[in-house]
Amino acid sequence: MSELGVSAQGTCIVPVAREALPVLDDALGLGRVRMVRKAEHHFTVFGYPMGKLWKKAFSAQPGLHALLDSCVKAHEWSFRPCRDRLYHLVQPEPALATVILGIEADLAGLFGKARALLAPEACAPALEDALREPPPPHVTLYTTDPAGQRGIGLRTARDLADALARGTGGVAEGLQAFALHPAVVLSTDP
Predict the structure, then answer these.
(1) pTM recorded for the entire structure
(2) pLDDT tens digits for 59-109?
(3) Most buried pick, 67, 107, 121, 126, via CB within 10 A?
(4) How many domains does the chain fold into?
(5) Which alpha helices (H) appear in 20-155, and where do they start and end?
(6) Residue 112 is assigned to a structural domain of this protein
(7) How far is CA 142 from CA 9, 87, 164, 172, in A?
(8) Is residue 38 within 8 Å of 143, Cβ to Cβ?
């Protein structure tokens, strides 16, 4: 498990202990789809696409990486799992399926603080725009990756909403998402 902070690549994840999640089996079957429990659990703050934007900003604004890292480490990272927000994500290329659990976490607050660190003369508009909408807070519970490593990135809440619309509309192209009842995935234990 990685330590909380911002990598040199501009990415950031918050580690999640197994004990902080509902009780999970080691494997899950959804019809003919077989999944394994994710090898490590986390929620993404800055994924790879945003990391690329941060990396450019680090070059344009000396000291920004250290400021952002301090901001991330000082932020309150408590979260609450939402048993009623379970989704099966299906990505056609490269083929991958996951089950994610929505959580309540203050990503919006951190994104606001991060935006305030940007110097106007050094800021790329793409980064400032990306910091206006955080990804939907979630933890990947299961994956079809046999090694339990790969997940499916969601950059914004709109990504999830669009995937749900494609899933319910039967659109086979692009990322699809399907809401799951908690009893399909989670133990009945609290």
Answers:
(1) 0.91
(2) 999 999 999 999 999 999 999 999 999 999 999 999 999 999 999 999 999
(3) 107
(4) 1
(5) 48-60, 64-74, 107-116, 125-130
(6) yes
(7) 26, 11, 18, 21
(8) yes
- Only one residue has tokens 């490590």, namely 40
Sequence-separated (6 or more) residues with CB below 8 Å from residue 68: 6, 54, 114, 117
Does the residue 1 lie in any domain?
no
Whether 63 maps to a domain, the answer reads: yes
Q: Is the dihedral of CA 178, 184, 188, 190 positive or negative?
A: negative
E-strand stretches of the chain: 12-16, 27-30, 33-37, 41-46, 79-91, 96-105, 138-143, 176-180
**Is cis: bond before 94, omega within 30 of 0?**
yes
Fill in the DSSP letter of residue 19.
G
Domain span at residue 120?
Answer: 12-185
